[in-house]
Design a protein that fits this description.
- It contains four helices and no strands.
- By secondary structure, it is mostly helical.
- It has two domains: 32 residues; 65 residues.
- It is extended and about 50 Å long.
Length: 107
């Protein structure tokens, strides 16, 4: 084993530890404080509702280039839904930033 192999092994090890910690620590915290879990679930529920709206609004039109790349109608609809969801979240975040700055200006 040379140093590159050892470095890759250590990186995989650290990635595994970080992955396990990123899953277990929020679960432990949510068991200790269930009210925080409810707020998190409300946020996830809001994103699911936004995705459903974005999926309903997205089209499944295909261009010749998309067909040549192997994209079918369902993939096109999911791509459109993802883009629409991104636009929704971007606009909501921009409005939140503007409202926050206006509130800080009046306080």
């Amino acid at each position: 084993m040379d140093t590159i192999d050892i470095g890759i092994f250590v990186a995989y090890l650290f990635f595994g530890v970080a992955l396990i910690a990123s899953v277990l620590l929020p679960l432990v915290n949510s068991i200790k404080h269930p009210a925080g879990l409810l707020k998190s679930l409300m946020g996830v529920g809001g994103l699911v509702v936004l995705f459903i709206a974005a999926y309903a609004l997205s089209g499944s039109d295909l261009s010749a280039k998309a067909v040549a790349m192997g994209i079918d109608e369902s993939s096109s609809k999911m791509i459109g839904a993802g883009l629409t969801l991104f636009y929704f979240v971007f606009v909501i975040a921009a409005i939140g930033i503007i409202v926050s700055e206006i509130n800080k200006a009046f306080k």
